[in-house]
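Hi R.,

Here's the chain you asked about this morning:
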Amino acid sequence: MAFLVLDELTKAYGGTVAVDRLSLAVGEGEFVSLLGPSGCGKTTTLQMIAGFLEPTGGRISLAGADLLAVAPSRRGLGIVFQSYALFPHMTAAENVAFGLEMRRVPRAERDARVAAVLALVGLTTLADRFPNRMSGGQQQRVALARALAIRPQVLLLDEPLSNLDAKLREEMQIELRQIQQRLGTTTILVTHDQSEAMALSDRVVIMNKGRVEQIARPDIAYGEPASPFVASFLGKTNQLAATVRATDGGSVIAIGDLVWPAEPGSSPGPAAVSVRPERIGFVATGGLRGILRNRVFQGSHWLLQVQTDAGLVTIIRQNSGDALPNEGEQVGLAWRAEDMGVTAGPGTVA
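And here is the predicted structure, written out as tokens:
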């Protein structure tokens, strides 16, 4: 059953629509990420849920109640900002206790809650330390503990890991997901980082120019993108020129010597398909022929680029120790029909 519901949520500034009729139902305990490039409307959506912005249209309900009728301070939401927004003159424990003090939680209960959430985020020994004597990761934990201390119905995260270096960001992703699963808190994350959204989320909401392009599990959105934008935004993908041809047995879609059945009723003509780099393999004969132009070692994998008549093809190969072709060699490429999708043109691959 849906716990947090956004129904046709809209925000316009004059003639500019920042969020265009966004509808989303979030289950209790679910972790959902709003994902997209800068200016797509994801932060505006989060601010409307928090009550910092008034929607132009649409509704928001939480546990069946109209959230728009509730003052922001009474919505019971925990919020972690990109900047953490810690009070520099307060210790970690005092920062965490602040929201509880505003809610007039009795001292004994307040102290117990502060101790519990600091232990949860691994900061018990730093309770008396001020923010300017903490690392970025430690400050992020304090901000998270402060949001969780009030026992929010929904946790809102606005790019909370973007200020951390790559290694610490990966570590904090794991910790954040473990904490969320342990507590079962319904969580909405705003991020432009595709890998972060896919690592943390039960579902992702991919947004573009104020509109939702796709709502799905991360693996579904990655493997079965609903639009060319999703295909290109979620990781690397190859967009290749193809042709739909009519045959005696029905329509086929062809790229070089590679041929697959096309959806019944597809009209002959040009098309375009997308296929992920890790789904493409080398074949000794046939396939899509081309010349290997670049071979780049990236530690855990190789990144290769092959120039073909259908376009430049990027391939990812795990660093398994297997021999790879050299730059300048002619190679053949192939992949399964189920590993590609038609992202433009007259149909979808069967």
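One quick note: The first strand starts at residue 2 and ends at 13.

Cheers,
M.
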